[in-house]
Amino acid sequence: MVKQQEHLAGERPAARKPATAEQYERYVGGSPERERTILEQLARELMRVQLKIKERSGAAGIDRAFHAKAILGVENARLRFNASLPEDLRTGFAQPDAEYPVIVRLSNASGARQPDSAPDLRGAALRIQVGTDETHDLLMTNHPVSHARNAREFVVFAKVMAGANTTLRKAVALYVKLPWALGWSTAARMRRNVLAGTRREVRSLALETYWSRGSILWAEAGPVRYRLRPASGTPAAPSPPRGDSDYLSHELAARLAGRDIVFDLCVQRYEDARLTPIEDGAADWPDADVPVVPVATLTIPRQDLDTADARATEIRIDQLAFDPWNTTGEFRPLGNLNRARKAAYEAGSAHRRGYRFITPTPRRNLVVGALLRGGFRVLNRYLPWHRLPTWIGLLNVESIRQVLRRDNLIDTEVRQGPPEAHPVPPPLEDRLRVGRTYDGTYNDLSAPAMGALGSTFGRNLPPVYRPDLFDEPNPVVVSRELLHRDIFIPARSLNVIAAAWIQFQVHDWVDHKRCPPGMQSVEVPLPYGMTWTNTPGGAPESVMRFAENEDLRPAGGTGPPILSANAASHWWDGSEVYGGDETVAKSLREPDGGASLRLENGHLVPGPDGVPITGFRDNWWLGLSVMHTLFAREHNAVCQALREEYPGMDEDAVYRTARLVVSALIAKIHTVEWTPAILATELIDIGLKANWSGPPKNWLAQLGLWLADAHALTGIPGTLPDHHGAPYSLTEDFVTVYRMHPLIPDAYEIADHRSGRPLESLGFNDVQGAATEPLMRRAGLANSLYSLGIAHPGAITLRNFPRALQAFERDGEIIDLSVVDLVRTRRRAVPRYNDFRAGLHQPRLRRFEDLTSDPDSLARLKDVYRSVDDIDTMVGLFAENPPERFGFSDTAFRIFILMASRRLQSDRFLTVDFRPEIYTPLGLDWIARNGMTSVILRHCPELAGILPRTTSAFAPWRPAMPEANTGIRHH
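Structure tokens predicted for Catalase:
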């Protein structure tokens, strides 16, 4: 019968012809990449199922979404392939008479641990251990077909049945919720399959036959389905005793006490897409047409299951994560359900083990949030959020953030298309659970590479790659007309420590690594008649040249080069202090593995080029030296406190804990001190402090958040990690809004903190590069802090870019950093300003007058740009009139409110692992009691009378009274 059928697309190839998954599979959405996105969403839905089962059952923790109750767990079974194994099935580990140890887990299929007498399917999971690096997990159920044709049906069924632990709830789920979700005919078919599989009385799991349902590739033989059936002669089982909720376990224990349990492992070969479909899990492969071929024998040896060792083994096996993708490429699972299992099993297992988390949004928040978003969308046409009363404005900002989280988190990381088989993941090392790694790996334990060194920058907006506009308008003209500083415009609410701080932070977060000078360059044509000297002592040229970024990678191997790898980790992990890899980090520590960082008389150790050896040493100047010196000292102070409090703690543990404490303290300072200083409004102060420690304890705030965003009722450190639907990364758009070079002054006065007496007047070139450390040691940390604390940074606005940075020598090149900033933003495909605004849900500009009312700026903008759509993003951000008392624009603020909380919320060391077991009680107390002022005073107590009394250390300090008739040395 079969031989006469016309084979359809996907027919099994002739014996021994290499078989590939692509011959048989059809991807949802038309491509592996699109299907992967869909299946990831379904995996998150299954995590919600796990939570619902936990809540309904009252379980102590997250359990498996399915097959939660183990009936048997042994690790001494053996699988022996038959001597008569057919020739075409002899491949890989499947060889005649080959024998392997096997771990066996038999279970009930439900996600709830219910009595064995409850209607249910039963499952078998085998882990065949071929060698140290090769295992094969086979998963089966005691019904030949799935109730679901595909992953979507499977997940919908799981959702409607989750927690249906009574007869009434099951009836409502099957006969009301399921038809509503999938339609009457689909629901009827699924009910038939489920009821057919669960209504049978099961007397012993040794007597059940288990089917794979889905297919796997059997190397050159092509696809097969496999099954496990009782060997002939297996003794029958008695009727289940009344009242024994665990009778299946007891029956197996009694059976194994007297004899082996033996099963035959069999396969059915693929014939064609109609008779033996790959993608339809609800379709049977009929035995009458597709012969069942025995290939091996599974033997569970006679043993006593009522011993301490046996019980320990069962517990150990119950913690394993069985996954059909734990195999090799030759035996890769096939079909939509199996591909979904890869995402689902990995997510479910990680959820169960506490490696991955999900935080469902209460239904009231969904309803109220939608109403607020609609209301504020109308209101903001007439009144922006920053002109509303504080508490209304806070709700407005929260609703904006919800929209941005929904629409403006774009995952760019290049991933495998078709899923690939893999070995069983090794056990997680304890050190990875309790401390930050050097390179940012294993912050998310379920996705170790997320946010790590070398992972790509994400996007908040779809990239706009326009090579034809790289030089339009000419970036040198833009710089000269709109950015160049003629007169210093100060930001009078801040001090220069605030400018140093943000560069200190950016160096922790982002680093686009540059090619070595001369290897690969960007060339910018100069306006007619202008020349530029690109290297010290070089000849004038008609182009401006500077090093290209490394690692511009095309998406998926095709398309424009718009993906760039971060040469720092994306996490808030203090890498600017500690280094971004193991070699650098260890070189910064004291010799012989000491926990403290190396200092010379309290100062950083200079390298051969005069710049200190520290975690991030590029773009070095006095402000960075102050920050790095201060926090290196702070690390050493934490180390000393830990040694005294916990004398049994070894030096590696002291280092690891101190790094956690200092990194978290830095994150706290940035969140509750620096940001409210540069965005100096009551609304921002409340919002940022609520991010860290929770909202004010008044009934109105609590009620509003309970209705709109219950997750915000505690500070982020009291919540679970949440990536908000996209793997965590910092973004190219985030990099763009943090281009804050106007903060840097061109002139510096070094003064004595005791008398206010000026010591030296210097230009920027005198406080940067190799000149920095001699100045630091000459002036001292206290005087350097004082000098920066009493000085104002520049305002982030047009015509205020530091002159010193417009002809700046770096790595053997002379660059105009303002031109570099413009060119980098264009080449990285960040949308131009008007598209940038629109992508962040702000109204588009229709004319230049919508951006600024300043006559000079308006004239210059019209002279440089043909239309408002051509305005560079950085220029638009600088030109935009910010909200009152804001240090940067409302458009930049949109990126900030999206990404600032994300940097905390995604990081397990600032959420679920922000706890005394990880940080120590001393460490958490250190973070709680300290801020920028106390850090400064710990290392420079002589500054106590100068620091601001009621504001943060980033506000202007009180100058000491200068002595009369004191000369100033000029450089």
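The longest helix spans residues 651-678.
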